[in-house]
Amino acid sequence: MPTLSRKSKIAIGVGVAVLVLLLVGPRLVGLGTDWLWFSDLGYTRVFSTIVWTRLVLFLVVSIAVGLIVFGAIAMAYRSRPVFVPASGPNDPLARYRTTVMTRTRWFAVLPAVIIGLLSGLVAQGSWATVQTFLHGETFGQRDPQFGLDVSFYAFDLPFYRLILNLLFVVVVVAFFANLLTHYVFGGIRLGNANGGPSMTTAARIQLAALAGTFLLLKAVAYWFDRYSLLSSQRKQEIFTGASYTDINAVLPSKLILMAIAVICAVAFFAGVVLRDLRVPALATALMVLSALVIGVGWPMVMEQFSVKPNAAQKEAEYISRNLDATTTAYKIRDKDDVTYDPNWTATPADPVAVNSDSATLSNIRILDPNVIAPAFNQRQFLKNFYGFPAQLAVDRYTVDGQQRDFIVSVRELDPAKYGANQQNWINKHTVFTHGNGFIAAPANTVDEASSDSDSDRGGLPVFKVSDLESIRTPEYQATAPIKVKQPRIYFGELIAKVNPDYAIVGSVGGDREYDEDGKNYTYTADSGVSLGNWFNRVLYSIKYTERNILLSDAINENSKIIYNRDPRDRVKKAAPWLTVDSKTYPAVMADGSIKWIVDGYTTLNTYPYAQRMSLQEATADAQELNPGQTARRQVNQQVSYVRNAVKATVDAYTGKVTLYQFDTEDPVLKTWMKVFPGTVKSRAELDKDQDLLSHFRYPEDLFKMQRALLSRYHVSDPETFFRSNNFWSIPADPSKDQAVQQGLSQPPYYFTAAAPDASNPQFQLTTVMTGLNTRNLTAYMTASSDPENYGRITVKMLPTAKQTVGPQQAQENMKSAGPVASDRKQVEDTTRVTYGNLLTLPVGRNGILYVEPMYTQSKTDDSAIPKLYRVLVYYNAATDGARVGYAATVAEALRQVGINPSEVTAPEAGQPVEGDTAGTPQQAGAITPPAQQGQSADRDAAVQAIGDALTALKDAQTKGDFTAYGQALDQLNKAVAQYETLPAQN
C-alpha cells in the first residue's frame, strides 16, 4: 500500500475540516439563531421538543443501523476461510483482499458509520410521526372494516410503517454488505475450477438468516397493508377507500401472501440446518409467482368480470362508507354541520319581503378588494416606500350601532418601491423599519364629486384613516368609527418581501427609524433578539452573510433584530404542525392594537375511507389572475381530514404570536397540545375575548375545500352518487374573461347580509353552484362568521323542475341589455373597463339578486385608479320577469329592477308583517300610513314616526346614499312594530 507524506495528511485533514465546517456550520448557526428567535417569541418548548426528538431519533437510528451493518461485515470477516486460493496470477480479488487486510478497521467501521449517519439523517425528519404516536388521542370513531379507532390510522400506522421501512433498508444493506465481504474474503467463489463448494457454511448461514429476516418483515408488511387498503385509490375517479375488489380480493390476498412469506422465511431458516439452498430458492420463486397471480391477477380478474358489469350495486356499500367518512372528516355532515334548504325559490319572492330586507340591501358591497387596491396605493401611500397588497381584505365593524362591511388594509413598507438612493443597507434595515396606519373603506359606499374642480374624486372609496397624523386630532377621537392607538406596522405581508426580511431596531443617543417627516422613532416593544453582544452579532452576520451587522456603528448595546415578519410565516414557524391559510387580514382590537388573524389547520392524509384531495388544487381559483405581492398558493399536499382547529393572532407592532384552541373536539389538535403543552391557549381563554371573536372570519381555503366536496357529497344515496347525475359544478368567474377561458373557479365572497334563517344581518362567506357542466344556478352555499353560529353552513338548493339563471348567464344578460350595451360600448372605446365581484344575494327569503360593480380607468395610464362607474343589477321578479338595472348608484339600479326599500308598505294593525305568510300583504308601492290617525297621542306619535321614516327614505334615495336609506328603513321597521303594539281602535 502506498503511504502518504505528512504534508499530504495535513492537507487532507484541513480539507475534511473545511468540508465539515461548510456542511455543519450553517446548521449550527441556524440552530443558534432559531433558539434565540423562539426564546424571544416565548416558544422555546416547541424548539427544544423538536430538536431533542430529532437528536434522539438520529442517535438511535444511526447507532442501531450502524451496529447492524457493522455486525454483518464483522461476522463475514471473522468466518472467512483461512486459505483462499487465487484464481490466477492477475486475480483482482487478491489485490483487494490485501488492501482490506492492511486497513481492516477502516473498511469495517467506515461503511457502517456512513450508512448509520445517512439513516439517522433520514429518520430524524420523521419527528412528528414519533411524537404523534407517543401522544396520540383517540377519535372515538371506528372504521367500518376492522373496527379500529381512527387514531390507529392517524398516529399508529404511520409509525409502524416508519419502523418497517427502516428495518427493510437496514436488512437489505446488511445482506449486501455481508455478501460483498464474503465474496472479497473467499467465502463465496464464482466459477470454482476445483469443483469445490462455491459458498462456505458460514456464508450460507448468515445470508440465509438475513434473507429469512427480510421475508419475515415482508410478512409483517402484508399484515399492515390490509389497513392501508382503507385509503385505496383504486376507484379514485369515484371515491377514496377500499372498494369491492379491495375487500373481496386484495384483502384476502394479503393474508395469503403473508402466510407464504412466513413459509418462505421458515424455508430460509431451514436452509441453515439442511445445508441446501434449493428449498429456499423454490420458496422464493413460489412467493414471486403467488404475488403476481394472487396479488395482481386475482383482483384484476374480479374487477373486470365481476365488479364492472354490476358496479353500482357492488360498490354501493363502499361508497356509503366513503360518504360517511368524508362528511365527518371535513365537517360537512347533514344536520350536524350543514343545513340543506331544498326547493329554494319554489315559491315567488314576496315584493314586500324583498323591499324590507334591509339587512341585505343596505350592505351590498360595491367595492371589490381585488380591484380597488390601486386607489389605496395612490390615495393613501404618503411616501414612495409605503404600499398596500394587491388583494385587500374584507372585515366588519359596528358603526353607529350597525354592523357594516369594510375593505381594510394596513399601510406597510413596500420594499419593491424603494428608490435608487434608498437601497443601501442602512436605509433598508435600520431606517425604514415599519409602516404607518390602518386604512378602512366602507364596502358599500363611494365618494361623489362635490364640484367640477373635485370631479376626480367621484367613484373612489371613502377612506377612514388611522395613522400617526390622524389619531392626534380631536375629530378622530370623537368621530372615528375605528380607533387605533398604535398605528406602526412592524410585522406584515409586504414588509416580509424584502430579502432578507430583517430590521434592526433600538438605539442609543437618538432615534434612527423613519416615522414622519422631520421625526424619527425608536422601537419600544420587548420583541426582537438582542444584538448587544458580539456572539449574537456574529451569528446573525453569518446567517445573513452581512458584514455590516458586525461593522456598522448603527448597532449598539440596545439594538435588536426582528425577522420572520410575515404573519403566516411567523405562525407556521411557531407551530410547524399547522397548515396555515393562504390569506391573512388585519383587525383593530378594542384596546386600539392591530392584530393579524391567521387561520391554522390540522390535517391528516390517512383518514379511512375519507376522500383524498389536493389542498393546492382545491383552493385555486380566479384570484390567481391577480396575485399581487402577497398572494400565496396553498401547499401541494394531499389530505383526507381538515379542521380549522387553531386561530392565531400576530400583533402588528410587537410580533407576538398567540395560538388559540378553536375546535375543542379535534383529536389532532389535542394530540399536538400534549406534544407541546402550554403553547396553545384553551378555548375558554379565547371565549373571554369577545372582541377578537367578533373579527374571526370563516376561513377561505377551508370553505373552498368544502364547496368542492359538497358539489358531490350533498348526494347521500350511494347509487345516485355512483351515477353522478346529481352533481354540481363550481362556476368560472364571469367577471374575468381569462378565468372563463381557463375554467378558473369564481372565488367565494365575504359580505354582510340577512342570515339564511332570519332577518338579522350576518357576516358570511358565500359561493354558488351550477348544474354539472351547465351554467344554470343549482345551489347557494353560505357559512356564517358570527360568533353565535360560527361555521354553520347553509346550502340552499333550487328546484330541479325549472332552470334558474346562473352567474355567467346573469352577467351576459346584464351586458347585453339595450341601455347597458350602448353605453358600455362607448365607455369601452375610451376607457379600460374592469368588472368587480359578481355577488349573488338572496333577498326576501326567495328572491335572487345579482349585483356587479363596473369600474373604469384610463387606457393610456397604467397607474390610473379604477373608479366605480356603474352598478349592474339583475333581478327576476315573479310578476314582471327578469330586469336589468344599470345606474351610478345601487339605489337607482335596484329601483330600475323593481326593488325600492322606500316603498315598503306599512301594514295596518292586525295584518301580517314582513316574513309572515299567514295572510295577504298589501301591494308594494303604495306609501300609505295606517288609518285612524289622530285618535290618540300615542297613535299620532307612531304615525308621525312612520311618516318621518318614509321621508328619510325618499331623501336618501334621491341623494343615492344607500347607507342612509338602509338606516332609515330600519327606523321604519321599528316605527311600524311600535304602531302594531298599540290597541286596536273601534
Describe the structure.
This protein is of the alpha+beta class and 986 residues long. Among the domains are: 142 residues, no CATH class; 82 residues, no CATH class. It contains 31 helices and 31 strands. The strands form nine sheets. Strands 1, 22, 23, 24, 25 and 26 form a six-stranded mixed sheet that branches. The chain has a five-stranded mixed sheet with strand order 15-16-19-20-21. The longest helix has 36 residues. It is globular, with a radius of gyration of 36 Å. About 4% of the residues have low confidence.
Outline the fold blueprint:
Layout: H1 6-41, H2 44-78, H3 92-102, H4 104-124, H5 127-135, H6 150-184, H7 201-228, H8 244-274, H9 278-307, H10 311-314, H11 316-329, E1 338-341, H12 351-355, H13 358-361, H14 373-379, E2 386-387, E3 393-399, E4 402-410, E5 412-413, H15 425-431, E6 435-436, E7 438-442, E8 464-466, H16 474-479, E9 488-489, E10 503-505, E11 513-516, E12 519-521, E13 529-530, H17 534-543, H18 548-551, E14 560-562, H19 567-574, E15 579-588, E16 594-604, E17 613-614, H20 615-619, E18 638-639, E19 641-651, E20 657-661, H21 667-675, E21 680-681, H22 683-687, H23 690-693, H24 700-713, H25 718-723, E22 728-729, H26 737-742, E23 749-754, E24 761-771, E25 777-784, E26 793-797, H27 807-816, H28 818-830, E27 831-835, E28 839-843, E29 847-858, E30 867-877, E31 881-887, H29 890-896, H30 937-959, H31 962-980
Parallel strand pairs: 1-26, 20-21
Antiparallel strand pairs: 2-5, 3-4, 4-7, 6-9, 7-8, 10-14, 11-12, 13-14, 15-16, 16-19, 17-18, 19-20, 22-24, 23-24, 24-25, 25-26, 27-29, 28-29, 29-30, 30-31
Helix pairs in contact: 1-2, 1-17, 2-4, 2-5, 2-6, 5-6, 6-7, 7-8, 8-9, 30-31
